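ok so i was messing around last nite and threw this chain in just to see what happens. nothing serious, just curious
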Amino acid sequence: MKGGTHIHIKRMTEQSVTIYDQSKVYGGYTLFSPHHTTDVWLIDMKGRIVHHWRMPYTLGSDVRLFPNGNQIRIHRTLEEPTSFLGTGGKELVEVDWKGNVVWKYEDLYMHHDFCRLENGNTMLNRYVLIPDEIAAKVKGGLPGTELKDGMWGAAFQEITPDGKVVWEWLGYEHMDLEIDVHCALERRSIWGYVNGLDVFPSGDIVASFRTLNNLIIIDKQTGAIKWRWGTWELGHQHNPTVLPNGNILVFDNGFHRRVQDELNPTRRTEGYSRVIEVNPKTNEIVWEYKDEDLLNFYSGVCSSAERLPNGNTLICESTKGRIFEVTPDSEIVWEFVNPFYEYKETLGLSNLVFRAHRYGCDYPGLKGRDLNPDRFKWELMEKGKPSTDEPHTSEREKVLRKRLGHLGY
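result:
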C-alpha cells in the first residue's frame, strides 16, 4: 500500500453498504479483489477501506489472509498456455502486509483454487492434457468443439514450501467415462473443469467439477472417487467448503442446471442461484438460501459462500459485485456492492468479484495493524469515463480476451 495520508480512491457508486444490522452481523473486515484489477481491498462493516494492496498482476484465483497477516493469491500473467480456458495463473504468491513477496511458486498450469494445508504444504488445482485415446471416449459436450491441442482435464498436486511435489492426482485415471458426463451445453475443451476445492481433516479432497454439475470427494490415500453428488441438483457450482460438522457448503450458480420434470420427461434447465449445505453421508440438503424472487439472486459464473463463526453465511454474488451476509433464517443483515468498475471486452462495464472473505475483529492477522479508514479519501468517478490511472492493456491481453469471449468464458 502506498504511504501517506488521504490516499485517493476512485469509485462509481456513492453508497457501498446498503444493509447493516449491527445486532445480527458477524462483525469484522471483508477482503475482496475486483476480478479485472490488480487491487485487493479490506473494508470494515461500513464499507470503509482500511487497507489496500496493489499487486503487479490481475487476480488468477481467490485471495485470502493468513493468521500472520500475509495475503496469498494466484497471479494471472497471461503467459499461461491455458489462459483462454478460464481463470488461472502462473504464480502462486504470498505477500506480507505491505505487499512484499515472501514466498512464490511458479506453475503455468495452475487455475482457480488452492488450499494451504495444516502441515504447511499447499494443494494446487491444475490443468493437465488428457491422453487422446481417453479424450475420444469422453461423453457429452457440444460436438465439434474439441481443441486442436487436445482435451484438458483435472489434476491436483500437493507441494511443499520449497516447491517439491509430494502427491499428485490425475483425474482421467480415476474418473468414469460412463458417469462423469460433460454438460451437453459446454465446449469439449476440458473434462472436469475444477473451479474450487477444499480438504477434509482426514486429508480427503472435495472438489467442484463445474461442467459435470457435481461435487466429488477424492480419497487422499487411494485416489479413488468415493462420493459424487449434484447431477440433478447443481448447475455449474463453485466454492465447496468443508464445515466443522462434516457437511459441505457450496454456491450453486444454477447455470445449465438440469431439472427432472414429471410432466415433461425431456430435460430442461432453470437459471437461478442459491447457497446450500449438503450432508455427504445422507446426500440431504440441510440448509438453503435463495431469494424469494429467484431472478433477484443469480450469478452464472464465479461466486462463493462462507460460513461465519456466528452461524451466518457470507455470500459473494460475483457478476453483480454483491457481497452480503445472511442469518440461518435467510435474513439479509449486511450488504455491500463493489464500487469499483472496469471495462472489459467480454463483460463490458463490470464490478465482478471472484470471492470474498470475512475476518473477525480478533483475527490474529489483523492484530496490531493500522486499520484507520481516515487514511483513504473517496473520489466519485463518472460512469463510462475511463480512469486516468487505468493501466494500459497490452495487445496480447486484448487478443486473449477476445479469444476468451469466443470460447464462452
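not much to say yet. The first strand starts at residue 7 and ends at 11.
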